[in-house]
Amino acid sequence: MEDIRTFDNVGQDLYVRVDEHELAKYGRKKRDGSLGKEGMVTLVTISICLIIFLVISLVYWFVKYNNQAKRLHKDYLFDGENNSDVTLFDLEDIVGATDNFSDTNMLGKDGFGSVYKGLLKDGLEIAVKRLSKYSRQGIEEFRNEVTLIAKLQHRNLVRILGCCIDGEEKMLIYEYLPNKSLDSFIFDQVKRLQLDWRKRFDIICGVARGILYLHEDSRLRIIHRDLKASNVLLDSTMNPKIADFGMARIFDGDQTEANTNCVVGTYGYMSPEYAMEGIFSIKSDTYSFGVLLLEIVTSRKNSDHYDDVSSTLVGHIWNLWRESRVMEIVDPSLMGETCPKYEVLKCIQIGLLCVQEYVTDRPTMSEVVSMLDNDSTLAPPKQAAFLFKKPKCDDPNLSISEGVNSINEMSTTVVEAR
Q1: What is the mean pLDDT of residues 358-367?
Q2: Catalytic residue flag (residue 226)
Q3: 224, 243 in Cβ contact below 8 A?
Q4: CA distances, 94 to each of 97, 101, 250 (Å)
């Protein structure tokens, strides 16, 4: 036996005699791949680290892909435009604000979706337009409203606060206007009494200024194409704000008119050239404004039935105008000592000028605003367009609003020129 502690020189060879059976046993362990206790611990540790790394990588790539998909979807909806003015709301916040879109919070409904009242955590009241998941046309409506309204700032246009995009959910978030829509007042036998002549005249002027801003004063020339009583909202002071820009179209440069193969909008407010030929221009909005003005003065819908052959409010007023009996159609609640008859007659005449049969005869909105602001002599109106003709549409996914799903009972008539 040797004590190896006595070998202090480095590099010496040391031969150790080992039992043959023990040496053979050691060799078999190596050949069998046995790692021993320490080897097993090392292998398990490496495996756990590898699994953790794979899980973290999968989560990272899933989150990155999901965010990229949402960003691409947003770019698709907005045509890749920079919409820095639009705030993106979380779906969870909107669900909480509307009490999961409860029926008690519903403000209205149409073919493209529903509108709900909401209350954010910071106490801000909002109006949420939730796009219908089954409306293919609604995607274009959504994109229009976001890209257009975000660029518009006027006291007579509804203000958009942001939008929410989450999977199939697409929502627009607006300022909440407590008095809701104009039609809920003028067509209600009780609530219409709250609108005296001064308030109605202010609403008429406010709507006219809002349309003028769209046509001439904003950064874009915009044709609304769906101006009607249910798309005019009222704030706490009854100031009118034009809403719902889903049908709106932008005109480039000096463009004055355009054509579409499928007419979409609301019967009764459409100009004859748009209803029959698909041609729309700023004068199309002028026609719609004229119909709205006459409804405000009379508290009657253009789609209501009238005894004479015209069958619409526009035609009925035109017949009364020719017979010098037009004051008979004015809302009786307005005919008091505080209501200036001359101003009422002036508004009716302006309305008839706006609904004249030929486009070239109708005034622009700048001329309408000037006529409302001044007492200058007005030209006599020419033939009004008021006969029926239902426009055709080859696309089954696009339709004309008929008010079937609306609490506001939208107009269902279409005009045709003589």
Answers
A1: 96
A2: yes
A3: no
A4: 5, 9, 30
63: enclosing H helix or E strand: helix 36-77
Return the structure tokens found at 65. 């892909």
**Nearest by Cα to 201 from 353, 338, 326:** 338
Q: Are strands 249-251 and 221-223 parallel, antiparallel or unpaired?
A: antiparallel
Contact 330, 320 (CB under 8 A): no
Reported as a pLDDT band with limits 50, 70 and 90, residue 93 is very high
H helices, E strands: number in the chain: 11, 14
Angle at 224 between CA 221 and CA 226, to 5 degrees: 170
Reference 292, options 350, 344, 227, 240; nearest CA is 227
Residue scoring higher pLDDT (207 or 29): 207
CA distances from 293 to 11, 26, 401 (A): 111, 104, 20
Exactly one of 226, 244, 285, 331 is catalytic; which is it?
A: 226
SS3 label, residue 120: coil
What pLDDT does 85 receive?
A: 63
Residue 117 has phi, psi (to 5 degrees) of -85, 140
Helices 313-322 and 282-298 pack at an angle, to 10 degrees, of: 80
SS3 call for 384: strand
What does DSSP say about strands 221-223 and 240-242: parallel, antiparallel, or unpaired? unpaired
- CA angle (349, 272, 308) in 5-degree steps: 60
What tokens were used for 64?
């990155």
Length reported for the chain: 418
Q: Concatenated DSSP letters for 152-209?
A: ---TTBPPEEEEEEETTEEEEEEE--TT-BTHHHHTSTTGGGG--HHHHHHHHHHHHH
| pLDDT tens digits along 155-172 | 999 988 888 988 888 888
**Helix, strand, or coil (residue 131):** strand
Percent helix, strand, coil in the chain (nearest 5)?
45, 15, 40
Contacts of 10 (CB under 8 A, 6+ apart): none
Torsion angle defined by CA atoms of residues 224, 225, 228 and 234, in that order, rounded to the nearest 10 degrees:
-10
Give the whole-angstrom CA distance, residue 117 versus residue 99: 9
- Rounded to 5°, the CA angle 146-65-101 comes to 45
